[in-house]
Design brief:
about 230 residues; alpha+beta; 10 strands; elongated
């Protein structure tokens, strides 16, 4: 890329232009102080603005469009160069052509299953329409819809209490993966074990207090609504 350092009314500006003609400029407010050694100062300015380090760029032509050999600290020049390089990278990305959207496959690829339980977490119309479009015929609502009144797997985890208690049928011969009970105050949960998948299911029913809660409609947004502030 070509590099040009020029004066501005309040300081200096560094312009970078790549081989495609994409350019970016960064400005640095700074007092204009004459350097003591003009020849050395000019050589130092050229050298400093051309140090592109680990960037993807390399210097091709370096120009100094200044009226005198001004003194600029190396730290200020480095910051100016980094700022200009970042702006140029952003400008280059902005000029890249957008790839055309690929046409949808017709007919849609069939989903491996024709029935989905609540574990598929289908909660909105778009998710349901997606699975129906791909051949799923029976779709249960997500657990959050409060339609699952019977026992359900509230959590599925690889952490297994049978293994922790040295009661794993894969480790100890003669032991069967019988269910266990987890008691938390007045609440009892059943632990069921899928040894083939090495999974423990925490099974229970939805609480009555949850069912008695008023239904709050869920609204999905394509982007964050104006004025929305997430809780801290």
């Amino acid at each position: 890329m070509d590099i040009s350092l020029a004066e501005t009314p309040v300081g200096f500006a560094l312009t970078l232009t790549d081989e495609s003609g994409v350019a970016a400029t960064a400005e640095l407010p700074h007092a204009k102080e004459p350097a003591k050694d003009s020849e050395r100062a000019l050589a130092g300015l050229k050298e400093s603005v051309a140090k592109l380090g680990t960037t993807i760029f390399s210097a091709r032509k370096v120009e100094l469009d200044i009226s005198a050999a001004w003194f600029l600290p190396a730290s200020s020049l480095n910051a100016l160069r980094r700022d200009a390089a970042e702006k140029l990278e952003a400008a280059r990305l902005a000029t890249l052509p957008r790839l055309p959207r690929r046409a949808a496959v017709e007919p849609p690829v069939p989903y491996p299953e024709t029935e989905l339980s609540y574990l598929a977490n289908v909660l909105n119309d778009r998710a349901r329409a997606f699975y129906q479009r791909h051949g799923v015929q029976l779709i249960e609502a997500a657990y959050e819809a409060n339609e699952m009144l019977d026992d359900a797997s509230l959590m599925i985890t690889k952490h297994c209490l049978r293994y922790s208690f040295n009661l794993c049928p894969k480790e100890v011969k003669g032991i069967k993966p019988d269910p266990m009970t987890l008691i938390n105050g007045k609440e009892k949960l059943t632990l069921r074990f899928d040894c083939k998948r090495c999974e423990m299911h925490v099974v229970g029913r939805i609480r009555k207090s949850v069912l008695d809660m008023p239904v709050v409609p869920i609204q999905f947004h394509a982007k964050v609504p104006d004025g929305f502030h997430p809780p801290h």
